[in-house]
Amino acid sequence: MKILVADYIYTPTGFVENQAIAFTETIQAIDSIEVLQKKYPEAEIIQTEANSVIYPGFINTHVHLEFSANKTSLKYGSFMPWLDSVIEYRDELMGECNNEVMQKECDVMLHSGITTFGAISSFGNELEVCEKTPQRVVFFNELIGSNAMYADMLYGDFMERVKASQSCEESSRITPAVAIHSPYSVHPIILQKAVNVAKQNKLPLSAHFLESQAEREWLEKGTGELKGFFEKFFNTSTPVTNIEEFMFAFDTYPTHFTHCVQATKEELDYLADKGHSIAHCPRSNRYLGCGRLNIEDLNLPCSVATDGLSSNDSLSIFDELRAALMLHHQAPMQELANRLIRSVTSDAADILGLNCGRITEGKLADFAIVTLKEKPKREEEIALWTILHTKEVSNVYIEGIKYV
Ligand code: MCF
Ligand code: FE
């Protein structure tokens, strides 16, 4: 048993002062240090630095580790030139992205307090790193392929990767999962088969959806920049599905949809009605010229995530949260800061179906300890000062073990 003491603890009922947490792999009790010491006289007491706040470990629900080698290869500013550059540099970037490069990025996430991440994997290359890294990893095996001719082969390869990730479940903190790349890139036949795999095995399910204006135009009218892209690279000129057909394919299984920047109010209401959620990637959306997600109008659960280095400049959750504060410049500051912290803790845990993300009895003992520069003058600003001032967290615990 260990007892962690800090000036502040972020709990579901707000920031509490002068309390401590008793934990093993899971949280046993939250109370004053005096009460906990009496209850657990043998426990090791860990005193954090002055002005520290204990948060549940942060959760980054959507990242592509396989693109970690990208610095200046992919074109930022607008979606279609970016996609063209992915086709051009994908092989080169994958070649450069060895385990050492990916592990380094897992460490960047860890030092920003990320104790769980959702890794979108197109080839399964990052499985070994995800087995070794201390974090919990929801391993999203990605299905991609719009050509019916290759559908069986692509589906077969996808299933092999699903099985490989399932075989790591016992010996690591990996949860196997399914990702559908997007409506424009996945044939509806294999899409439905993959959704069924997720449903039958109760695996978390995710999909990129309505990220760019080009995607919307292609799915609605079969025109626009994606038409040229498909003619050039895939020798086709009509979309394989449309917005409704794609959305309906997920009707009976709650799915984590990434981006949704170009979704209409009706589409968002539909997703909400079916119990789905959104991964919001503010820097990725900005860098790929996709626009701003109207988070103020959302009535469905929403996480904030970094996406990959394919459309970002770092995998630090604090860099992302600061970007979100700037992108949503019209939102009341304190409220937004509190909502953002929730989006990478309890909301993200609920979305991925994990027993972490909250400091309450029985939850996994995953903690990120943030040390503020001085005592906050007003309690209602702790979330904001945390986001604005934190480059790295002071300590990280996962399942009760200290990693930072
Ligand atoms: O989320 C961003 C932008 N939207 C779509 N895909 C990706 C993102 N970052 C990486 N990707 C990957 C995706 O997983 O790029 C490939 C897929 O394997 C694009 S398809 C040519
Ligand atoms: Fe993505």
Structure in words:
This protein is of the alpha/beta class and 404 residues long. The protein folds into two domains: 2-56 and 358-402, Urease, subunit C, domain 1 (Roll); 58-352, Alpha-Beta Barrel (TIM Barrel), CATH 3.20.20. The chain contains 15 helices and 16 strands. It has helices spanning 33-39, 79-96, 99-111, 127-132, 151-166, 188-201, 213-221, 225-234, 243-248, 265-273, 282-287, 317-327, 333-343, 346-352, 382-389; strands at 2-11, 14-23, 27-31, 44-47, 52-56, 58-63, 114-121, 136-143, 174-180, 205-209, 256-259, 277-280, 302-304, 367-371, 395-398, 401-402. The strands form two sheets. Strands 1, 2, 3, 4, 5, 14, 15 and 16 form an eight-stranded mixed beta sheet that branches. Helix 10 (265-273) links the parallel strand 11 (256-259) and strand 12 (277-280). The protein is globular, with a radius of gyration of 21 Å. The mean pLDDT is 98. It binds ligand MCF and fe (iii) ion. Residues 64, 67, 86, 120, 122, 142, 144, 181, 185, 208, 211, 284, 307-308, 310-311 line the site of ligand MCF.
